[in-house]
Amino acid sequence: MAAPGARGRSLSGLLPAQTSLEYALLDAVTQQEKDSLVYQYLQKVDGWEQDLSVPEFPEGLEWLNTEEPISVYKDLCGKIVVLDFFTYCCINCIHLLPDLHALEHTYSDKDGLLIIGVHSAKFPNEKVLDNIKSAVLRYNITHPMVNDADASLWQELEVSCWPTLVILGPRGNMLFSLIGEGHKDKLFLYTSIALKYYKDRGQIRDNKIGIKLYKDSLPPSPLLFPGKVTVDQVTNRLVIADTGHHRILVVWKNGQIQYSIGGPNPGRKDGIFSESTFNSPQGVAIMNNIIYVADTENHLIRKIDLEAEKVSTVAGIGIQGTDKEGGAKGEQQPISSPWDIVFGTSGSEVQRGDILWIAMAGTHQIWALLLDSGKLPKKNELTKGTCLRFAGSGNEENRNNAYPHKNLFAFGDVDGVGINAKLQHPLGVTWDKKRNLLYVADSYNHKIKVVDPKTKNCTTLAGTGDTNNVTSSSFTESTFNEPGGLCVGENGQLLYVADTNNHQIKVMDLETKMVSVLPIFRSENAVVDGPFLVEKQKTLPKLPKSAPSIRLSPVTACAGQTLQFKLRLDLPSGSKLTEGVPSCWFLTAEGNEWLLQGQMPFGDIENISSQPTISLQIPDDCLSLEAIVSISVFLYYCSADSSACMMKAILFSQPLQITDTQQGCIAPVELRYVF
């Protein structure tokens, strides 16, 4: 018999029969009853006189993760196929990927199952193959994918929603459709019974499909899709969400890695740095040596304590939540895909930074995590650790009290005033308090925009819109590729940009209007992100005979451990460092120079009230079990009335005892002296 109500090849032909099945499944109690209902449904659909056949993939489409283009009616005969209609900007589509990964791990093409991603773009930028390649890498998609840039298959099947799954039988016959996220149980039920039904009839083939993963063709990259970046305003260190490597990096402003926490594989584990893991972290915020992390695909907010060198969970339960109100203690409150975070202040204004605002992408809301007891606007007093919704209904729309309902598809790349300006999927903003300006990562336009709140004028600050990677240029000639995050540092001089798809951190000098790449490098001096421009070697000045020499208590450390020396030097009251004459520090290890190989042996001291922390990582290959590291410090300063300028120096000697035994956390060594 004919399929009832079938309209050509559209999904609507499945609707009456599948709706009846799903109502029946609501009343089923046991798994056996559910399996039987689906089996009977397949008998009915398979008995239709004419299949609801899926159209062939159009010729000339671009494919990823395959040796060659795939044909529905040549390569997929004898397979149960799951077509995933998605677009990579859609958070709901991202939520579906773990379900597809789990299905792939349960059934392979040899078992008769294949998943194919049909990328159907929402924005023009998403039609570009290179951008889809980046998404394939970012989300570790390992099944075949086709770029249906003109959405031809989407339109023929009358798909209407991202994501939509269409399950095909071994003849290219449509069996089921699942719209939206959150259908993992049905997905596994429908595919498993379909495999059984058609195996019983001898229609499943175990031939392999030629898979060639795109990621296998690429050289290793030390930064992989960095999503967000923030700056520690006290030490000028940067915190980078190295999203594709599932780790958090803390780097000095010259690019040297101080801490690498998590990675390279995804996971969910608290504990000491060497054991902790993340899953595609995004937003980061740092204050007082504490870093908070939006651990996006773990659906958690994590806390990194740099002094204790430990990671803990402060919000979320590790699985995607559907609660759109919240109110429980953080570690008991389910949350959904936190994407970005920033410190804020409660209504009491007793202290700053006592709230962590969370952009909750999974529910399209703004949430708050109380870092201390306080009060939110229009809320009662809340206790420390409470995590709850602050703004947003959870519906995906653009509506507030001041403007009418707007078109979610009204995007573009237009400079202008107010609603005349157009952006395309901006993923990051930051405030410049020095200039009272807002900077915007206009991600899909590959530009950095600037907004003046007084005039409401939005203009392009940097980026041509071209995605070819130019590593050093003026603002007007610079390029970005889906920049995802940005922050202001160096007292308003620099704008750091997470240039996500170029796998780099770009540095925009807001005074000289030049853009450069931050050279990320390890302490072994291994360049990991572009050429490292080595500073001109400084010569160690001769210590004056009057310079005090302080021998510190011995420290025991093991290979790979990092020691920190915190300068705590006091000048005479009212004194200030001499401008134009750089005060500095030097590391030496006479007779044991191997200790310093690949490390930064010198640095400047720019502000006596914010003195640097000096890091020394013990090499993996130690040539001696005992050594002495010397820290020489030279301060050039003027008296309060600038009537006299002086130089003071001091030598600290740190004996080291190196052991094979794993050591616990070593407290930073404070180098104190009052001149």
UniProtKB/TrEMBL annotation:
Instruction: State the NHL repeat positions.
Output: 414-454
- Kindly give the PROSITE patterns that the UniProt entry links to this protein: NHL, THIOREDOXIN_2
Q: Describe the location of the Thioredoxin domain by residue ranges.
A: 43-200
Keyword entries, A-Z: Cytoplasm, Repeat
What Gene3D superfamilies does the record point to? Glutaredoxin, TolB, C-terminal domain
- What are its GO cellular component terms? cytosol
Q: What does this protein do?
A: Required for normal embryonic development.
Protein name per Swiss-Prot or TrEMBL: NHL repeat-containing protein 2
Q: Which organism was this protein described from?
A: Pongo abelii (Sumatran orangutan)
